[in-house]
Design brief:
Elements lengths: L2 H23 L10 H28 L10 H28 L10
Helix pairs in contact: 1-2, 2-3
Length: 111
């Protein structure tokens, strides 16, 4: 694994960790309501975030043919980041939509 791969992984790790931290802070109810299940839920969200980031990287590298490179200039980096964001947002939207349609998203926590 070269320096570029390690940098990509560390950037995605920090990004997903920040997302999970924001969700943990701004939840409409406290983490104590679910007790230990809330932490498992946050860990699962982190894992899904990392998976979606790596899947989007694979799509950009092999399907769109835009590997990560600093040598091609700022316009290439901006274009690649915009495409990454569009693909990642669409993927996360579709994955949550499919989860809702399968019935798993309609379960209630409180009985």
């Amino acid at each position: 694994m070269n320096k570029g791969h390690k940098e990509t992984i560390s950037i995605r790790f920090v990004s997903c960790a920040f997302m999970v931290l924001a969700i943990a802070i701004f939840k409409p109810f406290g983490l104590g309501v679910w007790q230990w299940q809330a932490y498992i839920h946050l860990l699962a969200i982190f894992a899904l975030g990392m998976f979606s980031c790596f899947l989007t990287e694979v799509i950009l590298r092999y399907i769109v043919r835009m590997p990560r490179s600093y040598d091609r200039g700022i316009s290439y980096i901006i274009s690649r980041n915009l495409r990454f964001q569009c693909i990642n947002t669409a993927y996360l939207y579709l994955s949550s939509f499919c989860d809702e349609q399968s019935g798993r998203g309609q379960q209630t926590v409180f009985k």
